[in-house]
Specification:
Layout (H helix, E strand, L loop, with lengths): L7 H8 L11 E6 L2 E6 L17 E6 L13 E7 L15 E6 L1 H8 L10 E8 L2 H13 L5 H20 L13 H13 L6 H7 L4 H12 L3 H17 L6 H7 L5 H12 L3 H8 L3
Antiparallel strand pairs: 1-2, 2-5, 3-4, 3-5, 4-6
Helix pairs in contact: 3-4, 6-7, 9-10
Length: 290
């Protein structure tokens, strides 16, 4: 008997009417309702090898290897691409064992996207960055698909909503808003504070006092949990916020620097180039929203 998560009819509704079981012999796939996750394991997807193929759904591909990226990918993020329904594309050059493919039903994806923007672009393999923790949630979705637990439709529906919104926010450039949050409450509390007050004059002593820890313990715990120091985390958050503001021409570089807590345009330019590899002015030219 066919597993529910391997229902070829559900997969066909997302991938395409001509999809056959033989196309997926080398692929693990987990499909439920309006979302499917396809993970190549021993070879290529037969449907993906077809030249200039299309899908009736939105296709999001998340790569473990960022070598193909033409955009800057923040630490602990993966490169991803998105293709709209009906857009022809080719996948023959994809490294078979280093990506997850997510298919989301057209009507559902668009209904959720409109909660963020009135404009719905046609995506033609657009690249964007997405937090690596998304893979954990996708694995949870896959495991839940395989289990025959009571009310699993409720939990799968919740995970589908979370994944869809995580993807949409990342497509729109809010790649760090879904960054992983520490399981240590004091560190997580610090993360929330930094995200809300990144423009303030913060220092590590203030942050340690905020969570009632000694300076040495706070620094040690923060780096253990996140792999970087509190001040490095603060600077990363400021850079991400600045990148979002740089996409708008009506905000001057000086105003962006001050709003994001850099203090001066010179310090902003130096920090930005260190993280992104180009100057704020060049980033604006390359990413200006038209």
């Amino acid at each position: 008997m066919e597993k529910e998560n391997h229902n070829i009819e559900l997969a066909r509704a997302l991938v395409g009417e001509t999809l056959e079981k033989s196309d997926l012999v080398h692929v693990d796939y987990y499909v439920f309702d309006r979302m499917g996750i396809f993970i190549p394991c021993t070879g290529n997807c037969g449907y993906a090898t077809k030249a200039n193929h299309t899908h009736p759904s939105y296709m999001i591909t998340i790569y473990f290897d960022n070598e193909l990226s033409q955009i800057d990918i923040p630490r602990k993020h993966h490169m991803a691409t998105i293709v709209s329904p009906g857009v022809e594309h080719n996948d023959v050059d994809v490294n078979l064992h280093h990506y997850y493919c997510v298919m989301i039903e057209k009507e559902y994806f668009e209904s959720q996207f409109k909660l963020y923007s009135d404009e719905l672009p046609i995506f033609k393999n657009m690249q964007f960055a997405i937090c690596s923790d998304v893979i954990k949630t996708m694995n949870t979705y896959a495991f839940e698909c395989e289990k025959n637990m009571k009310n699993k439709s409720i939990t799968l529906g919740a995970q589908m909503t979370l994944l869809t919104h995580w993807i949409i926010r990342s497509v729109l450039g809010e790649e760090m808003d879904m960054r992983s949050v520490s399981s240590d409450f004091a560190i997580a509390k610090t993360q929330y504070y930094i995200e809300a007050h990144y423009g303030d004059l913060l220092n590590v002593e203030f942050l340690a006092n905020y969570v009632h820890q000694s300076l040495s313990s706070f620094n040690r715990n923060f780096k253990r949990e996140l792999g970087i120091t509190p001040m490095q985390y603060l600077e990363e958050v400021r850079i991400v916020k600045a990148k979002l503001m740089l996409r708008r021409m009506d905000i001057s570089l000086t105003d962006i620097a001050l709003h994001c807590g850099f203090g001066s345009g010179a310090y902003f330019a130096t920090a930005f180039k260190k993280h992104v590899g180009i100057t704020p002015s060049d980033y604006r030219k390359n990413h200006l929203e038209l």
